[in-house]
Amino acid sequence: MHLKLLLLLFYCLGSLPTLAASYLDHGEHRIHFTTFSSLIIPADVASAHAIVRSKKRIVLNLSVLTQGMPATASISGHVINLLNQRFELIFDEINEAEAVYYLASYLALEHDILRFSLDVQLNATDSVPINFIRRYDQ
Description:
The protein is mainly beta and 138 residues long. It has helices at 2-12, 43-48; strands spanning 19-26, 29-37, 57-66, 69-71, 74-80, 86-88, 92-96, 99-107, 111-121, 127-137. It has a single domain (2-13, 20-137), classed as Domain of unknown function DUF4426 (Immunoglobulin-like).
């Protein structure tokens, strides 16, 4: 529950340079996604969710709402860094009482431009591609 409140706080404070939150509407679904430094997560919360905290580690958080209610999905994707190196993202599903979200992390370069490419499989026939870029400076 602590991580959910923390992520909600970060989402509401979208103007912070360490956080970039966005959403995409697709039919009755709204897909929220955000990236932020893992150091923002308190140590006890990170430990409870097996998140490694590091000044170079970026966390990607994604959640799906269907008609305003939390929904599950199958998430896959990769990130390409400034050196054009591609890394597959591994998403962990976090289920809480009133939320479902997916977390993946990536170890960024000191100064990096990250190109994220995600595929959100909402059901057996409905897939949503999401592509975005984030700049990272330590």
